Structure formats: structure tokens, C-alpha cells
Amino acid sequence: MAKKLFIKTHGCQMNEYDSAKMFDLLGEKEDFELAKSEEEADLLILNTCSIREKAQEKVFHQIGRWRKIKDKKPDLKIAIGGCVASQEGENIIKRAPAVDIVFGPQTLHKLPELYNAKEKTNINQIDISFPKLEKFSHIPVNGTGEPSAFVSIIEGCNKYCSFCVVPKTRGHEVSRTIEDILNEISILADKGTREIHLLGQNVNNFKGTYRGEKSSLAKLIELTAKIDNIERIRYTTSHPHEFKDDLVEVYDRVPELVSHVHLPIQSGSDRILKLMRRRYNIDKYINLIDRIKSIRPDMSFSSDFIVGFPGETNEDFEATMNVINEVKFDESFSFIYSPRPNTTASEMPDDVSIEEKKERLNILQNRLNQLSFGYSRKKVGTVQNCLVYGQSKRDPGQLQGRTICNRIVNFSSHDIDLVGQMINIQINEALPNCLRGNLQN
Ligand code: SAH
Ligand code: F3S
Questions:
Q1: Ligand 2 shell residues, CB under 6 Å
Q2: What's the CA gap between 225 and 262, in Å, rounded?
Q3: What is the pTM of this model?
């Protein structure tokens, strides 16, 4: 009988991608099937996130809940992967002895080996090393034909923003070759995928080779667009410092590239940006936005914001609000600064009270929500070309698509054959987080 696997994923899209690969790998090499519930599983995997303290604390709460299942089912194995695993290593097992296996973002391909070793020897297995790109040559590319699929193109990060733990947990930047990436995309496209979402912490520093020569994200985008049946291309995350001219120009040549970019600004204050070690200032950021808009006037921009960075003054916060009003960001993410282990910002004096930080976050999020709702309202009355993603989770009588500017659109239809197709939808209502419309004949 096939063994059962249950994977819980915290955090970013890179983790979602990695979790899907863990399932493909364990399915192929060890004949695992997906369990319907945690109680049914023989192996429980938690793919963790350590970007903020709260995310990290969720890990031990989750292990605590799984330990109760293991008490009743001693053969059950628990494996912890992702960034907390990478950061804490064997400390995880010291704090939570119910854990059998600890592996990092770059060693997930070793899961079958680690699992078997634990089964045979009953010795706990830990491997959080950083073998460069080794995982990609071990992971099968299955593709389930889902309309939109992630493809990792660059792993790790070299930027060392002063607040961020990622360079420590995911290692240094290393790019896959373009041939390897295109091969994965072709397999996905053959299975029915229509949208490719290129992933990395810092995709615009992609330096993968093509035919033996160092290449770029712009080149990769052009080659991806040429693959049969690929109708849309997205990428996340890009860093404002490395957004080169060839990437701006590609918006002119590749209509498959969507009119939305996630370009985290973090703060609107040059002083704070410097302390964050972001390597750009507000003038440079605005200039980049203007250059992209001169090619694609309907382009929308979303961002990440950190409020309450150590020493952030009212003036710094005002500068962030000013830049939000100037750029008019669309659906964005915002967080209260969270000190992370072994980061330089965690040693900076911080005299801003938590109440003040919460208040600033509240003001900022209200404004971002207003702007985002404004965007949605402007779409009412227009016809939007959408890729149909699937059924709405809340109502099976509704299908869900996405516009080229990244808005979710719900519309009434029971025609499941529309999933994976590009269709036109007449937008007739704007809700805070999505649009509603009718299928156009
Ligand atoms: N590679 C991406 C960001 C990855 S982390 C980039 O270049 O921007 C995702 C977001 O989490 C960041 O953009 C930042 O806004 C937030 N973040 C990272 N570290 C944080 C911390 N210590 N406290 C609060 N938010 C943080
Ligand atoms: Fe983190 Fe900055 Fe890299 S936010 S992921 S160190 S670009």
C-alpha cells in the first residue's frame, strides 16, 4: 500500500514551489500519495518561513499539534524544511524531539534519502547544506496542467538588506541555465499550463547561461514567450536596484508579459532606505516607474512596505505616505519591522514604541486599501481579457480568472472547460479584493 504524505507550507511562493517539488519527488522515488488529512499521513512535512518572528513561532506550535498525532502513531515521521530549518538546524530537534528530519531549501531533493535513513537506522537526519542547484537535477518535472505555474529561476539572495534573514537561510544567488528552465516550461505548457510565473528572491539579477554565455531575465522572458501555448508571463520578486534597461524594453516587445510588477520599495525615506541597505533612493525608484510607464502606460505596481524600522521618525513615515500617494501602488503587502537573528538591523537602536508602529501600519494599510479599491473601480465598465484559473473556492457556480493587471475576477459559469482559457469578461462590479463580471460572447 502506498505511503501517505501531508505537506503544510508557510511563507512565500518559493516555498509553495518547493513543496510541490517535494511531493513530485517523494511520489516518484518513494511511491508516496497525498494524504487527505494529517491523521492519515505516514510522513508530515512542514515547509517553514522565518521572515518575521511570528512566522517562526508558528513552527513550534505546529510541531506541538503534530506531536499529539505521533503519540498515537509512533511510526509517523515528521520532517521540517524551509528557512527556519536552515536557520535553526539541530536546535529544532533539541527543542522538539518529535521531529525526525531537518532539511533546508537547497537539500529538499535529499528527502527520500533522509527518510529512508531514518526508517532504517532510527537516527535523526539533518542536512541543511547549500549544494549549488543540485536539487534541480534530481527533481522530476511532472506538471499537472494547472493554468498558472511557478518556475524557480534563481535561488538565494546576495543583497543582505539589513533587516532580512533570507541570504542566511537560502544561501547565495545562483541561477539555473536558460535551457534547463525552458525545458521545465515546455513540459508544463504541453500539460496545459498557460501562465508562467518566474520565481526568485531577486529575479532581475538572474544570470543564467544560454548556449554557454551569461544571459539575462529579459532574454529568458523573450524565449519563454516563444514556447507554444504560453500566453502570459509574470515574475516575482524584482529589486529596484537591478532593474536594467533591457528589462524595461522587453515590455515593448513581449505582449505576453503582464502589465503588473511587484517592485518592493520598503520605505519612502532615503534615510531609512540607506539604513536598510536597499541601494536605491526614491528619485531612482520613481524614475524607473516612469520609464516603465512610458512603454506601458497601463502598468500597475505593487510593493512591500516595512513600517517601524529602527529609528523611523514621523518624517520618515510621512515620506513613505507621500511616495504611496505619488506612485499610487496597487495591492501591496505591509509589515511591522521584526528583528531577525544575525541581521545588522537587529543591532540598531529602536526607540519607536510598538503602539506607534501599529498606528503607522494602520494608516498605511488604510491608504493602500483605498488606492487598490480605486484601481478596481476604474475597471468597472471595461472588458478585460482574463486567464481562467479555476472554480471559485466559495461558490462552485463561479469561475475565477485574472486580468492582465493582476486582478481576480469572478463570473458565473458552470463551464469547467473554460479553465485554462483566455476569455473576455465584461466587468460590472468592484469589490475590495476582486472584480465581478459576465462572460462576453
Ligand atoms: N526578495 C524580496 C523580498 C523577500 S522577503 C525583495 O527584494 O524585496 C518579503 C518581504 O518581507 C520583504 O519585501 C519585506 O517587506 C518583508 N520583510 C523582510 N524581512 C522583514 C523583517 N525583518 N521585518 C518585517 N518585514 C520583513
Ligand atoms: Fe531579503 Fe533584500 Fe534579498 S529583502 S531577499 S535581502 S533583496
A1: 157, 159-161, 164, 166-167, 201-202, 239
A2: 20
A3: 0.95
